[in-house]
């Protein structure tokens, strides 16, 4: 029993002298093997598509035949990786799995050129599209013939054509004549090129073959009946087709060919275009009969084309006269069954081919509309007509439907092959596919336009805008109901006459409106303007009008269409917004914008009278902490109080503005000397020292103030503000609560500060930060209690930057957060090293900045450091400054309590230099008090410092706290602290800050000494 298969043919086109002559022979060979043929047209000349791009029918076809390179690289890869055999006709298979059926192009063209050489020609031109494999082979045959006869190659005689059609032959012959290079013969790569060249030469008055001999390649029907008849190489179309089908079936049956290529011989046909006698082409009566048949077929074809053109026109009219195209009327020719499936996305976002139109002239079943198919399983086999089945006389034709707008889908047609296809390229059938794509595009656009029209109708009925349409030709304006409602309170009546509109407009605005309409009609400038209309109540109606012009085919304005919007409320809001734009909403003070305007005016006055003015920049110190701990609501109240107090400090002629956050700026509009600035700054600083009572809590503020003088320091607004800002930052960097007058040296300090900030941002990344450790020694035992970690910055320049220089900058910029976390984790890691080195009881002390202490998740950060480094909580002591501890007692008590619950120790650092007392410590869960080194330095000579140190130690012990004295540098200080029963000391006397390895050696040395 014969095995039935489905054979797919992919070709650029399914008609013409090449494809149209191969396809019937392929179909006949497939029918003889009781199998089924699927033909896919891949190319679209209009859209510039040359190959099939989608794997249509790839799951239902058993083997493929590719006529010339007609599949995209991606499809060839699918064939290469799949298990389905494929055969290439007219080009070499790019993969070993494929077989190639080729014409003997090279040897046949060599025979044709040798024939011309035998006629005595030496200057022989070659024309062809050498981007194609077979044409390139023919060009090589041309070269072979020249080489064999010793004729040198003249590159000027080679013309590379764009394609292989008639027009390329005409343009190539013209190019040869323009070059003025001598030639006596043309070897054309195809018959169509050869016929085009003959037409061109004859139109120029030359005789073929007397002046120029011409040969072709293919032996198309026109070759024999042309005048002069064309000498050419006869393509073995039937043998090529049958051989391709044969090889495909052999591979399907598991018998792969021994060779990758099959070469089919071609025969050179001698006629009169090469100057051979015309009668030599009729060597027998059969040749003469063939000549007459070709002539008759051509005559019949031209008649049929004319008839089909008329039918196609009627079909086009019938198919497209309704809103939607009808494919049954469009495809009037031999197709008796069709299915149009368009791309749509399903619920999962996958593309599917959905059946949208079908027809069957013979009553065969058709797939239901709305049926969905995967691309690789289309067309639907269950619905194909019986006449297309194995051995059937009809062919299944698949064609992609595309337009410039989109890829629509596919149409499948069933019917016999058109007998005209093997004579000429049947552009009529190709037009049908183009018409279908354009019609689908038209339907889509029509639906969009209809949707837009419906929306516009709804908008026109429901919008708050008035719609107007001015017919310039008739001189009438149509207004919708909303337009009349907008203008109903005007003092004049609105009619369809244009003058009625202009009578409504405020007299001061009429000229602008007329000019706007003139620019719209004469300069194509869209109409957009605002104007006033007097209302009957004495108020103005503000109107925004927009529109554009509609022109006829000559460019003459025929209509102006637009909208009308009542913007009276918008204008009132803009006025209010303008007022608010110059005022700070929180404090009621002027804002930056108004301040700069007033500063500019004051500068101009001082320029006229020769006096001076000053600009002061004020920044409240550590105000961010209030927001972070008590919330922005409390912070805002404090800002309002501070703003009111600062305003009291400046004169009536002076201006204070809020720039944002906790920054204020002051304009002293007239000063005599710098002392005037200092006096006002002193009043401000004194005022801020008084406690602010809010919600039962006292707040203490201070400020960093910077100032500059005009015209001494700057000549423009921005410079004065910038210089005052630089001075303020200098004041803040040096402790705040002070005034700094600008000097040019501060600008260079600003650059230094910027460079330091940039370097600090990269310090962690580059590994430039390190820790030193200063020993803490117990006075009672003499043993090492632990060490305080001290950060160092080793800059890329080789210098070590002390923490006092970069820590304030890190706190100000927020860099202290990542730096502080690194210090905590690194100190814990080193402590782990000490424990592993035999020092399990040591305590590592880490300084915590105010910014870190405000983090709500700081306890979690501590837990993480302990967990990841593996040290016990009692090995860690966290040091916070006295100022940080008492700044917000509620926050401090809560956070320190959570840290104590973890098990770490808490130390109050720098105690004694702040505003708090030891009584505050009763409220805080702490373990250690560290006496600031300023009291230790002179405690031997200064009785006050001695008394303070004694009081701190005694009161701390009474509260159950231990005491560490910082900055111990002499033995006398050590002995005095022993007498006062201080618990621990640290300082240069017992050990300078040192690296971790040095600290380990230090500990071992002290331990060894203690054990002696």
TrEMBL record:
- Is Transcription regulation among the key words of this record? yes
**Molecular function terms, GO-annotated:** DNA binding
| Transmembrane parts of this sequence | none
Pfam families, per this entry? EAL (PF00563), GGDEF (PF00990), PAS_3 (PF08447), Peripla_BP_3 (PF13377)
Q: Which SMART domains would you find in this protein's record?
A: EAL, GGDEF, PAC
Q: Which domain of life is it from?
A: Bacteria
Q: What is this protein called?
A: EAL domain-containing protein
Organism expressing this protein natively: Cohnella terricola
């Amino acid at each position: 029993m014969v095995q039935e298969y489905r054979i797919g043919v992919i070709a650029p086109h399914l008609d013409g002298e090449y494809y149209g002559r191969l396809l019937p022979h392929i179909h006949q060979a497939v029918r003889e093997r009781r199998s089924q043929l699927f033909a896919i047209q891949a190319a679209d000349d209009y859209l510039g598509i040359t190959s099939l791009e989608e794997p249509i029918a790839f799951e239902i076809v058993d083997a493929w035949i590719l006529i010339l390179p007609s599949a995209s690289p991606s499809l060839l890869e699918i064939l290469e990786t799949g298990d389905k055999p494929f055969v290439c006709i007219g080009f070499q298979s790019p993969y070993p799995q494929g077989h190639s059926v080729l014409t003997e192009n090279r040897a046949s063209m060599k025979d044709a050129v040798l024939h011309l050489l035998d006629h005595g020609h030496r200057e022989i031109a070659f024309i062809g599209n050498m981007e194609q494999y077979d044409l390139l082979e023919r060009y090589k045959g041309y070269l072979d013939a020249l080489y064999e006869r010793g004729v040198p190659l003249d590159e000027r005689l080679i013309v590379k054509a764009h394609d292989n059609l008639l027009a390329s032959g005409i343009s190539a012959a013209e190019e040869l004549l323009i070059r003025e290079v001598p030639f006596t013969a043309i070897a054309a790569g195809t018959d169509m090129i050869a016929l085009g060249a003959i037409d061109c030469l004859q139109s120029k008055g030359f005789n073929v073959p007397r002046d120029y001999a011409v040969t072709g390649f293919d032996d198309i029907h026109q070759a024999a009946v042309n005048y002069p008849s064309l000498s050419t190489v006869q393509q073995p179309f039937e043998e090529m087709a049958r051989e391709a089908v044969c090889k495909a079936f052999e591979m399907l049956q598991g018998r792969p060919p021994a060779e990758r290529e099959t070469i089919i011989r071609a025969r050179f046909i001698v006629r009169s275009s090469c100057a051979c006698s015309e009668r030599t082409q009729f060597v027998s009566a059969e040749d003469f009969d063939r000549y007459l048949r070709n002539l008759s077929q051509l005559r019949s074809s031209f008649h049929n084309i004319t008839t089909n053109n008329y039918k196609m026109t009627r079909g086009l009219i019938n198919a497209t006269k309704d809103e939607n195209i009808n494919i049954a009327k469009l495809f009037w020719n031999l197709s008796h069954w069709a299915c149009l499936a368009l791309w749509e996305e399903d619920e999962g976002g996958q593309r599917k081919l959905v059946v949208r139109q079908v027809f069957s002239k013979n009553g065969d079943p058709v797939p239901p509309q709305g049926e969905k198919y995967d691309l690789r399983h289309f067309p639907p086999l269950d619905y194909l007509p019986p006449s297309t089945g194995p051995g059937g006389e009809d062919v299944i034709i698949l064609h992609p439907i595309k337009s410039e707008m989109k890829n629509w889908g596919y149409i499948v047609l069933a019917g016999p092959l058109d007998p005209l296809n093997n004579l000429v390229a049947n552009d009529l059938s190709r037009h049908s596919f183009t018409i279908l794509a354009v019609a689908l595009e038209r339907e889509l656009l029509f639906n969009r336009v209809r949707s837009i029209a419906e929306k516009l109708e709804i908008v026109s009925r429901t919008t708050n805008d008035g719609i107007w349409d001015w017919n310039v030709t008739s001189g009438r304006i149509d207004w919708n109901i909303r337009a009349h409602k907008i203008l109903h309170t005007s003092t004049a009546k609105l009619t369809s006459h244009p003058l009625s509109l202009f009578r409504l407009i405020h007299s001061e605005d009429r000229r602008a409106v007329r000019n706007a309409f003139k620019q719209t009609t004469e300069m194509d400038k869209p109409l957009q303007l605002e104007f006033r209309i007097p209302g009957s109540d004495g108020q103005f109606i503000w109107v925004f009008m927009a529109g554009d012009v509609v022109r006829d085919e000559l460019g003459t304005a025929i209509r102006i269409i637009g909208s009308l919007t009542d913007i009276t409320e918008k204008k009132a809001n803009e006025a209010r917004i303008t007022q608010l734009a110059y005022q700070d909403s929180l404090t009621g003070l002027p804002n930056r914008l108004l301040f700069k305007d007033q500063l500019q005016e004051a500068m101009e006055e001082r320029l006229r009278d020769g006096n001076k003015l000053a600009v002061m920049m004020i920044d409240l110190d550590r105000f961010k902490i209030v927001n972070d701990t008590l919330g922005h609501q409390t912070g805002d109240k404090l800002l309002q109080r501070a703003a009111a107090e600062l305003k009291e400090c400046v004169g009536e002629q002076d201006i204070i503005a809020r720039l944002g956050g906790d920054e204020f700026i002051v304009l002293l509009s007239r000063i005599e000397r710098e002392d005037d600035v200092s006096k006002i700054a002193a009043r401000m600083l004194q005022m801020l020292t008084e406690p602010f009572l809010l919600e039962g809590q006292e707040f203490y503020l201070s400020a960093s103030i910077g100032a500059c003088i005009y015209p001494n320091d700057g000549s423009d607004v921005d410079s004065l503000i910038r210089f005052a800002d630089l001075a303020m930052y200098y004041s803040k960097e040096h402790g705040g609560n002070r005034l700094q007058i600008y000097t040019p040296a501060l600008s260079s300090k600003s650059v230094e500060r910027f460079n330091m900030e940039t370097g600090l941002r990269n310090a962690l990344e580059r590994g430039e930060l390190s820790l030193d450790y200063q020993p803490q020694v117990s006075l009672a035992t003499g043993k090492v209690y632990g060490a305080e970690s001290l950060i160092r910055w080793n800059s890329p320049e080789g210098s070590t930057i002390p923490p006092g220089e970069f820590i304030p900058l890190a706190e100000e910029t927020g860099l202290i957060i990542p730096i502080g976390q690194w210090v905590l984790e690194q100190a814990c890691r080193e402590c782990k090293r000490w424990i592993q080195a035999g020092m399990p009881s040591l305590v590592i002390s880490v300084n915590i900045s105010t910014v870190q202490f405000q983090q709500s998740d700081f306890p979690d950060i501590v837990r993480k450091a302990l967990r990841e480094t593996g040290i016990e909580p009692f090995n860690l002591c966290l040091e916070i400054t006295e100022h940080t501890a008492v700044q917000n007692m509620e926050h401090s008590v809560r956070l320190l309590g959570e840290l104590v619950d973890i098990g770490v120790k808490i130390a109050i650092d720098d105690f004694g230099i702040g505003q708090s007392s030891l009584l505050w410590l009763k409220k805080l869960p702490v373990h250690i008090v560290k006496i600031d080194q300023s009291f230790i330095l002179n405690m031997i000579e200064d009785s006050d410092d001695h008394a303070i140190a004694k009081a701190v130690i005694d009161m701390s012990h009474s509260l159950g706290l231990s005491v560490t004295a910082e900055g111990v540098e002499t033995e006398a200080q050590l002995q005095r602290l022993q007498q006062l029963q201080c618990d621990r000391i640290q300082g240069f006397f017992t050990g300078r800050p040192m690296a971790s390895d040095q600290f380990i050696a230090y500990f071992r040395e002290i331990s060894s000494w203690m054990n002696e």
